[in-house]
Amino acid sequence: MKTNMNLRSAREFRAKGLLEAARFVLENLLNQSDRKWECKEGVIYNELGLLNYYMGNYRQAADCFASAVEHATTRDSWVLYNVNLAIAYRHLSEYDTCYRILNRLKQECTDEVRSITKGLLFANLSTIQGLNGFYADAITSILESFRLFGESGVHGNDVGLHNNLGIAYLELGQYGKAELHLKKSLELSGRKDLPVLSDIGRLYLMMGKITESIEYTKRALDLVWSSIINYEKEEIARLCHLLANITIRCGEVELAVRLNEKAQVMFGQLGMWRQWQDIEAEMNLWHENPPSWSDSSGLNGISLQEVHRFLLCLDALHSQELIHKKFARLLDLRAHYVRLMANELELSDRERNDLVLASRFADYGLTALETEVVMEPGRSEQAFEKYKLHPTLSVQMSQTLGLSDDVIRVIEDHHERFDGSGYPHRKVAYDIHHLARILAVVDAYCTGIILEDKRHDIVWNEIIHESGKRFDPRVVETFIRMHDIS
């Protein structure tokens, strides 16, 4: 009974996006000495795998899913856990392992396996087939996935399936079918999906319809800030590549090369080496035979300044990730939790985006400091004095990114303390920007979890203890309320 209650709590935390609280519950469950949870071991490990997957910890996710497979109690759960394991391997760029698992499952599915589980299997098989260049096979798998999800009355995957189908037809040169499915995907997504807009832009570019390509690329650029907030590397890499192909046709050779190099960096980080090699071959071709611009309207509404700003922001994000191997994870978790707090506080869209942007760039100034100072600011008084400079440095360095005045103020104030003992200006209480007071709580929580390797409950209690001193009591109350699943 207690095991089921804990599992339910963990799932409720995960559903609310409270990933660290969910992980704490599950790990506590596994550490119980009475081992009453053994009959649910596969379910627990699968839940832990999902949490690690959502956190971007793909190696840990793979280990958890492998344990779930070992403890599966039904054929359906065994297939589901194996599909999840294959997905984790795909994100680890172990494409051959992923393909072998999914291809084996396709042969071993029986009537005991639910249609929805089979649909998930074929959807993910199509993705790895596409990544390996087997586009005809990918189309067959996508159509089978549509059929199986349809049997289950499930349509939540239709946007992705139509998009993948469009990409497969695009790669096969069947542009009419590609356009049909990409437009359908865009319609189902509410017409605000960056990957779909980018893929339609690429489709029209390959069809020689430059004006239409620019139109959809402009719409994709309008969503750039939300993309940087969520920071899906593959989506951004594909947009960089599309922009490179448009700007080269406008005679902006240096800018096009920079965009393609940025795309290569991100594809390389993701282990997507075929895409990396395709861009390398493309740039060699440009060197030998530069594309000619076929439309006198130039970029037709796309601002070169906006493209340059986009690149500067990517440079800033990447430079922070290089501070330490844990830093990319810190930035992602911090952006995730400030979004949750913004929703809990019912902030406006503008305030939410300002808060998330500030969380992404608040530590830009740390890139100007030594790694030892960043990771251990308390090692000496001199080190801490250097560390205290980083909000001011972040403000100065972020001025070039074109961020709003409010975002800059949040960055400047995010280490001020409610009792006036913070830095750099020792502001007190409500003199501190209201979004900075939210970021302060989230930053303390995420730093404790990621950089200091503390458990959720330890950091939670530290935040409560500092309410009214380091933190705004009302923000702490919101943080507590957000975790209430009673």
UniProtKB/TrEMBL annotation:
Keywords from the named record: Hydrolase, Plasmid, Repeat, TPR repeat
Keyword Repeat annotated: yes
TPR repeat intervals: 159-192
Boundaries of every HD-GYP domain copy: 305-486
UniProt entry tagged with the keyword Transcription regulation: no
Domain of life: Bacteria
GO molecular function terms noted in the UniProt entry: hydrolase activity
Protein name: Metal dependent phosphohydrolase
